[in-house]
Amino acid sequence: MLKKIAFALSLIAITSPVNAQGFDIKLASEMAELTYLTESSTFGYGGADIGFGVLFTENNDYQLNAKLMISGNPAGNNKALQFGVGGKLMFVEIDITNENVGALALAGQVRYIIPSSTPIAFRISAAFAPSITSFSGADAYGEYEIAAEIEVTPSAQAYIGYRKMQYDFERGGDFVLDDSAHVGIKFEF
Known about the structure:
Elements: H1 2-15, E1 22-27, E2 31-40, E3 48-57, E4 62-72, E5 81-94, E6 99-114, E7 120-129, E8 134-135, E9 138-153, E10 156-169, E11 174-188
Antiparallel strand pairs: 1-2, 1-11, 2-3, 3-4, 4-5, 5-6, 6-7, 6-8, 7-9, 9-10, 10-11
């Protein structure tokens, strides 16, 4: 079921580039993630970044996700510091246990940009879903990521980072979907 949904999302992303704002491609030794990026100016002062993604692992695990992040600069003169708050909805198909679980998580991020002729940024982000917003056998979800980004061109960024994503189950135990270093590129158009 999740494979069909992932395929449908891929087709939508490929066949509607007019509405697309960009793509984020993240690769690790045992994981790959493709996220279709867009934005909405209807949220807050600066709008919201919206992403629809599919993640798959070498172990035939698949995760579909949708995220919304409202970010901007705090009051004051520090324009290099950015904060973001939002949410993330995930559905994952775990191959080894043949389970489908999901979660609706609150998310946040802090990003610091070092201004230069080639801007560099450092980002820390986290997402958490307690038992009340985890479903289909999931008891909790946790994710954190750290990354260093470099702006290659105004419409392309490259990054390197580390991320851990983990589901806890109601029956006990946990499942780590990702726990690795990764590289990525983000294209915006």
